[in-house]
Amino acid sequence: MKSIAVFVVAVLLLPAFAAAQGFRPPPFAAGIPGRAQMQAIELQRHQARTLLYREALEELRRNPQVVDVRECGAGDDEKAPCLPKASAAGVSAAVATQPTTRRFALLFGNSRYQSPIPPLQSPSRDVDQVAASLGQKLGFEVRVIKNATKVDMVRAMAALAREAGPADSVFIYYAGHGYLMDDTNMGYWIPVDGSVKTAAQWISNTDISKLLGAIPARQLMLVSDSCFSGSLAREQAVSAAAPARQEVLRRRSVIVLSSGGEEPVSDEGKDGHSVFAWHFLHAIGQLEGTTIGFDVYKDVRKGVSDDAPQQPQYGAVMSAGHEAGGEYLFEFPEKR
After folding, report:
1. Is position 58 within any domain?
2. What is the pLDDT of residues 238-274, one digit of tens each?
3. Number of domains, the chain
4. Which of the two residues, 33 and 79, has the higher pLDDT score?
5. Of 17, 81, 140, 190, which cross-links 105 as Cys (Cβ 3.0–4.6 Å)?
């Protein structure tokens, strides 16, 4: 009875704490609540977020294009924050027979936001550890950008589009705030220069897809650990069955693994990491040989859903050039 009473008091007081602390609730004196209690608390958090972002959301309803990143023009230099042209669709016959040439990993960890958007506790540690695992175990060339602005993020992904080649493997990781508009079902990343008064510095799913589409690598995975990140993975479901490795490499694969569906997710987790990042790191640590992304997703989904009221999602981004039958491969580098 004591734990129930504490929960009731916490929920009743949550709006006040939301206003004072940027919708981060106080620690639970009676321990971690059960699933139903956590779902109620997450609903309260979403309501607090909607209230917090109300001016930016009203602007988006009036003018959805306010967030759009302009397309690169002939006179733009490499530092211009713009959308490169989409890469050629498909994998050429010459590239299909080549082994993976290089492995690039670009990781964004956004923690320090402008008030009243609350800071996040885990992204900095999450991206450091994921980067270390990818670099040391799987041979990725890693680039970590912490507390990235919209310009930082667009420039970094555009630079990757210029550098990566068709036979390369690219992995992108985002940890930070996000939001899904209930009425339009459009999702957004919120960089550290994001505001509650205007959405101009937010990044829409549409532009994220365009940035992915500009990266010519035949193997491309985006992992998004943010609120409502599941909206990125809903274009096309990916089944458990996958062709043989060489068949996969004949296709362009653009895959998204998200930390949740279309529900809020929490960065409060395990050992200083978000729940999702902890289980993702554990799955990477268990890799042996060549593993398809769907198998990594299954392990992560089970661990996360056992620990928290959120369901990781896995899907293909057809609008970024994914080809049917494609998959992402976690592979150890070939010995030379």
Report:
1. no
2. 877 767 888 899 999 999 999 875 545 555 567 788 9
3. 1
4. 79
5. 140
CATH of the domain at 124: 3.40.50.1460
Taking the C-alpha atoms of residue 25 and residue 17, their distance in angstroms, rounded to an integer, is 6
Q: What one-character-per-residue DSSP string does 177-222 give?
A: EEEE-TTT--EEEE-TT--SS--TT-EEHHHHHHHHHT---SEEEE
pLDDT band at 45 (very low <50, low <70, confident <90, very high): confident
Q: Domain range for residue 232?
A: 76-330
pTM to 2 decimal places? 0.87
* All residues at 6 or more sequence positions from 89 whose CB lies less than 8 Å from its CB, including other chains: 252, 321, 323
32 found inside a domain: no
- Tokens 């670099």: give the residue: 135
> Tokens at residue 56, please?
């930016």
CA distances from 266 to 4, 41, 129, 212, 281 (A): 21, 11, 18, 26, 17
Evaluate whether residue 335 is within a structural domain.
no
User: Tokens 């956590």, residue?
Assistant: 38
Determine how many CB atoms are found less than 10 A away from the CB of residue 78: 10
Is 54 part of a structural domain of the chain? no
Name beta bridge partners: 220: 170, 254
Phi, psi (deg, nearest 5) at residue 205:
-55, -35
Q: Got the DSSP string for 134-173?
A: HHHHH--EEEEEES--HHHHHHHHHHHHHH--TT-EEEEE
User: Which residue matches tokens 């509650």?
Assistant: 196
Model confidence over 174-207: pLDDT tens digits?
999 999 888 888 899 999 999 999 999 999 999 9
